[in-house]
Amino acid sequence: MAEQEQPQGDAHQVLLRTIYTKDLSYEAPNAPEIFREDWKPEVALQFDIKVNPLADDTFEIVLTLTVTVKVGDKTAYLVEVHQAGILSIKGFQQHELPPLFYVYAPSVLFPYARQTVTDLVAKGGFPHLVLQHIHFDQVYAQKIAEQQAAESGPSATDADASKPH
Fold first, then answer.
1. CA–CA separation, 105 and 110 (whole Å)
2. What percent of the chain has pLDDT over 90?
């Protein structure tokens, strides 16, 4: 029986070591009065991604979701979740890491954070809230395009347009 060769050296590996809630906060500053309001919520979602090196090939990725829901000018509730994961990465060059940190990892962490937000809102007595999926690949591509545009400076057309006629 022939032995199968195992890939050597540069094999790319991403190991998700653990997923955990690092921090969370829930506030309903206008309860119980807000429950008497006509429920026409305005939902605002903000997110951030932090990368914390732990060892040469191990990183903590923290996805922070902040959800603010207002009814009129009153805040109904504010939820902030820091969902974290520990990744071990082998066989990647430095320039290959950003998509892992800013697309892959948050895509894995987001469903956990979304579920936490949904649970906290329900336990707070508010109507069910389900956050829509964030397309981290599109957000990352847009950020790269913006950085490249900023680095290239104003184009000749922009410079001509700014000259007085």
1. 9
2. 77
User: Which among 115, 122, 128 is positioned nearest to 83, based on CA atoms?
Assistant: 115
The whole-angstrom separation of Cα 134 and Cα 111 is 10
CATH architecture of the domain 13-152 equals Roll (3.10)
- CA gap 4, 38 in Å, rounded: 67
Confidence (pTM)? 0.82
Burial class (CB in 10 A: 0-12, 13-18, 19+), 81: buried
User: Comparing C-alpha atoms, which of 102, 100, 130 is closest to residue 115?
Assistant: 130
Full 3-state SS string of the chain? CCCCCCCCCCCCEEEEEEEEEEEEEEECCCCCHHHHCCCCEEEEEEEEEEEEEEECCEEEEEEEEEEEEEECCEEEEEEEEEEEEEEEEECCCHHHHHHHHHHHHHHHHHHHHHHHHHHHHHHCCCCCCCCCCCCHHHHHHHHHHHHHHHHHCCCHHHHHHHCCC
